[in-house]
Amino acid sequence: MQKRALVVGLGIAGMSAAIGLRQAGWQPVIVERAPERRIGGYFVGLMPEGRRAAADLGIAGHLPARNPPDGGKTWSLTRRGSLEPGLGFLHLPGDPLAVIRGDLEAALWQGTLGDGTSEPVDVRFATKPVEIDDTGADVRVLLEDTGTGTWYRESFDLVVGADGLRSSVRRTVFGPHENHMTTWDTMICAFELQEQVPSFARADSLISARAGRAAWVFSFADRPPTAMLTYRTGDIEGQFTGSRVERLRTVFSEMDDPVVRHALDSVERAPDLLFDSVHQVKMPRWSRGKVVLVGDAAWCLNLFSGMGATSGLLGGAELGRALRENPDDLGAALASWESRLRPFITKHQRIARLKQQMFVPSSRPAEALRSVVLRLACTARERRLARTRAAEGSAS
Ligand SMILES: Cc1cc2nc3c(=O)[nH]c(=O)nc-3n(C[C@H](O)[C@H](O)[C@H](O)COP(=O)(O)OP(=O)(O)OC[C@H]3O[C@@H](n4cnc5c(N)ncnc54)[C@H](O)[C@@H]3O)c2cc1C
Fold first, then answer.
1. What is the CATH number of the domain that holds 295?
2. Can you give the residue ranges of the FAD-binding domain (predicted)?
3. What is the rounded CA–CA span in Å between residue 304 and residue 182?
4. Minimal CB count within 10 Å: which of 41, 48, 110, 123?
5. Which region among 54-63, 177-186, 284-293, 371-380 has the lowest average model confidence (pLDDT)?
C-alpha cells in the first residue's frame, strides 16, 4: 500500500518535501494553518545548491531570473556621505539567482499541482495539527480545521514538520522553543519599495551600514527593488510593542542618508512587511521516530545566511532522494538524509555569524574592519573582471 506522509506547512520547505515524497512514491498531504497560500516575500538569492534542488524537484523551469545585467552595480554609502563601489549579495560566489520568495512559492505550488504523470498533492488550508502521537507503528495526528472548528484524526507513516522558525511540530515532539532557538539580538524589517531611491539607477543595489544598524536595497532587472532595515538591540521583546514605523524612525534617527530616508518613507506605505527578530534553530537530531523536521523548523539559517530558501529546497529534495534510496527502511532513510545534509547546514550556520557582520556590523571597530575587507574584495573583483574581459578580448 502507498505510504502516506503529513507535511505541516505550505512554505518553501513543506512544498519541496511534498514533491520529494511524491517522487519517492509516497502520498503527501500538506496542511497549512493560513486560510490561503502565503505568497508574500522579498529578495531571495538562490544559491547553486538551491538551483540544483529546484531542478531535481522539476520546478526550475517555472522560476524567473530577475538578476540585473552583470549583477548590477552596488554602492556603499560612507559616513562622510560619499559613494563607494560595494559588494552586493549577487556578487557572492556561485552566481545567486535573484528571485523573490513569491516566485519560489509559485513555482513550487505549480509543482504540487502535478503534471499529468503525477497526482496533485492534497493541500488543506486553515488546518493545523493539535496532537501528534507516534505509536511506533504509525503516527496518529489530531487535526483541526480552523475554518469550521472541526477536529478529526488521521494516521500517517511519517510526519514532516515544515512549519517554520516557531514550529509547533518541533515544540510538540522535540520540546520548547527555548531549547532550540538561539537569539541574535537583531531585528529585520523587509519590504518592497514603490520606487528606486531617487538619483540611483533602477538596477543599482545600495548599502548603508553603520555600527548596529543598516539599510540594504536589493535591485532586480524587472521589478521594483526591495529593502531591508536591520538593527541590533538588547531588548527583543520591546521591539514588538507600539508602532513599528515609529520604532524604525527612532532606531535610524542618526542615519540621515538618502537610502535610509527613502526606506523609512517607503515603509510607511508598504502594504506588506516582514518585521521579526533574528534566530537560528539548533538541534542535535532533526528526526525522532516517524517525525522529521525540515527547513526553518529544523535548522533556520536566517536571513543573514542568505541560505533559507536554498536549504529549504535542498532539505525537501534530499528527503525525497533518501526515501527513494531506502524504500523499506524509514530509519535508515532519515539517518542518511541527515548525515548528508548536516555538514552543509552546520557550515552555513557558522558562516551566517560572519555574514551578519557584513550586513550589520556589531561595533565601530567591526564597521571599520568591514569597510577594509569590502574594499579589498571589491578591488580583487575588479581585477578579476578586468582579466576576464582582457582574456575574452584577446580570444575574439
Ligand atoms: C510570508 C513569508 C514571507 C517571507 N519572506 C522572506 C523573504 O523575503 N526573504 C527571505 O529570505 N525569507 C523570507 N521568508 C522566510 C523564508 O521563506 C524561509 O526562511 C525559507 O524559505 C524556509 O522556509 P520554511 O518553509 O522552512 O518556513 P516558512 O517559510 O516559515 O513556512 C512555514 C509555513 O508553515 C505554516 N505554518 C506555521 N505553523 C503552522 C501550523 N501549526 N500548522 C500548519 N501550518 C503552519 C506557515 O503559515 C508557513 O506557510 C518568508 C516566509 C514567509 C512565510
1. 3.50.50.60
2. 5-323
3. 14
4. 48
5. 371-380
